Amino acid sequence: MQDSKHRGVSLLHDPLRNKGTAFSAAERDALGLRGLLPPRSHTLAEQERRVLGNIRSKATDLDKYLFLIALQDRNETLFYHVLMNNIEEMMPLVYTPTVGAACQAFGHIYRRPRGMYISINDRGNVREILRNWPHDDVRVIVVTDGERILGLGDLGANGMGIPVGKLSLYTACAGIAPQFCLPVTLDVGTNNRELLDDELYIGLERLRERGDAYDELVQEFIAAAEERFPGVLVQLEDFGNANAFRLLSSLREGHCVFDDDIQGTGAVTLAGIISALRLTGTPLAEQRLLFYGAGQANIGAAAMVVAALREEGVAEEAAREVCWFFDSTGLLVSSRASIPAQKQPYAKDHAPVADLAEAVAAVRPTALIGASGQPGTFTREIVGAMAQHNERPIIFALSNPTANAECTAEQCYNWTGGRGIFASGSPFAPVEYEGRRLVPGQGNNAYIFPGVGLGVITSGARRVTDDMFLAAAHCLSRQVGEEQLQSGQLYPPLAEIRTVCTRIAVEVAGLAWDNGLSDRERPADVAAAVEAMLYDPVYPHYA
User: Fold this and answer.
1) 362 is a domain residue
2) How far apart are CA 165 and CA 210, in angstroms?
3) Taking the model in full, what pTM does it have?
């Protein structure tokens, strides 16, 4: 006899096992479902058509997001079937840019819990709390403390939408089964006064914890997660600059940990640069890259550029000379009084410059890469100057969500006479320019982190290395076809993302075995081992 949890109403309330109207007549009899569902059975394809009709009838993207999250909460197989089959339409709804609006309103749209919340008040009890999670075989955790959500700043516990969305992409893009995924928010307070004054805010009503107590919570969480879920991969997500670099540096050698905002963004940006250089015909060593914003994204991108140049035989100091930075203080120069450790390697022996347009004139960059969160800062003057001294200027406006982009795709193409090579963080629609259809590239981390994660999980790697992200960047760029490149696409179509992530996973798993990072025996066919891991959203047969 079936366990009572897997029968009747309990079964219908289990999102991993529920099939809704797709239960057959025989299953309904065997599982105590007769009378609990409408009498007609539907196929998965028919259910998908119903879902798409509902989504497309919604007035706003936030309404569509809410519908999809509700579907995920009641029927994960159908949710992932719809998401995978319609990835180009659905990804902007379950992740950026819509997830940003969802996080801002999270306390007001909250329906039911998903993932785990661990607060600063839980210090000393994290191991016991993690035992409450119902699935024992968790293989990947995405954890945030909500301090730097996209380009929206400190959203505290409302930032849970990010780990939930990221893990949806692990499943949709890399085929990691949903029961292997755990979203976590570390609630250490928020400095967002608007949230603290909101009676519907879901987090602690206190300012952010700093110092030893914060570090102790993070360390306790990592240790407890590894004890509860041996071999688990932990992805750090949307931590503030004050903690992100420090945590990555302290955790990466002894734990299976990476920071997507630093390493994932760095890899996807490098992949876009490599693709762009196929259009310009110039080598990476001859570039002058001006990074606008010196947070995790651009520092991570510069580190990947340096790694790529070192791989080509360029000395590290010479490789760093390719990378220039302009932050909130101006051009990053060595005479500046105080420079954070992560920025110091990129400070230049140059006179201070406080204006971005003046910096572009002084540096004469071949590429301008924005990850500043400052919308509209790539003005006509600045983009025009890039076009004046570059035949094919590279303009990356990577800030998320869409409203924070430094410029739009249309502006880039119009202000460069159609010669600009453009990429953004959030999606922009194709642009018609003088009879040409130009397709903007979207530097979405979803091209990178799911495949890296799948490769780490397949191999059982003990650590995640920068070489894995460098390999992922090269692999991603190689999958852009010549016809796609000529239309302006620097990344493969989203419709191909599962293939992209699978190929990245093969590269990453191979590196883990090559570098002795796994205790598992290397299979004769690494690609087959990766393929064997992939989750397929189809219903099981119960009777």
Assistant:
1) yes
2) 27
3) 0.95
The DSSP 8-state label assigned to residue 373 in this structure reads S
Are residues 326 and 428 part of one domain? Answer: yes
Residue 447 annotated to the active site = no
SS3 content of the chain, % helix, strand, coil (to 5): 50, 10, 40
Q: What is the CATH number of the domain that holds 209?
A: 3.40.50.10380
Q: Are residues 71 and 208 in the same domain?
A: no
Map 198-258 to HEC letters: CCCCCCCCCCCCCCHHHHHHHHHHHHHHHHHCCCCEEEECCCCHHHHHHHHHHHCCCCCEE
pLDDT tens per residue, range 59-69 = 999 999 999 99
For β-strands 330-331 and 367-370, DSSP reports them as unpaired
Residue 400 near residue 150 (C-beta atoms within 8 A): yes
Q: Taking Cα atoms as reference points, which of 424, 443, 401 lies closest to residue 152?
A: 401
Q: How far apart are CA 43 and CA 26, in angstroms?
A: 15
User: What is the spatial distance between Cα 88 and Cα 76, in angstroms, rounded to a whole number?
Assistant: 19
Q: Which helix (H) or strand (E) holds 326?
A: strand 323-327
- Please state the domain count of the chain: 4
Same domain, 106 and 11: no
Do residue 181 and residue 221 come from a single domain?
A: yes
Cα separations (Å) of 196 from 114, 164, 209? 22, 23, 14
Average pLDDT, the chain: 96
Whether 450 and 174 have beta carbons less than 8 Å apart is answered as: yes
H-helix or E-strand containing 182?
strand 181-187
Residue 107 shares a structural domain with residue 181 = yes
Which listed residue (65, 80, 95, 491) is catalytic?
A: 95
Q: What is the pLDDT of residues 453-495, one digit of tens each?
A: 999 999 999 999 999 999 999 999 999 999 999 999 999 999 9
Catalytic, 166? Answer yes
User: Could you tell me if 251 and 215 are in contact, meaning their C-beta atoms sit under 8 angstroms apart?
Assistant: no
Q: Is residue 234 part of a domain?
A: yes
Q: Of the residues 19, 64, 166, 343, which is catalytic?
A: 166
CA 264 to chain centre: 7
Range of the domain at 62: 4-94
Neighbouring residues of 391: CB distance < 8 A, sequence distance ≥ 6: 280, 419
Nearest CA to 233 among 186, 180, 300?
180
Identify the domain boundary among 255, 279, 310. Answer: 255
Taking the C-alpha atoms of residue 334 and residue 347, their distance in angstroms, rounded to an integer, is 5
Q: How many C-beta atoms surround the C-beta of residue 110 within 10 A?
A: 13
CA separation, residue 280 to residues 3, 283, 287, 367, 486 (Å): 63, 9, 11, 11, 11
Average pLDDT of the residues in 326-351: 96
Out of 255, 283, 313, pick the residue that ends a domain.
255
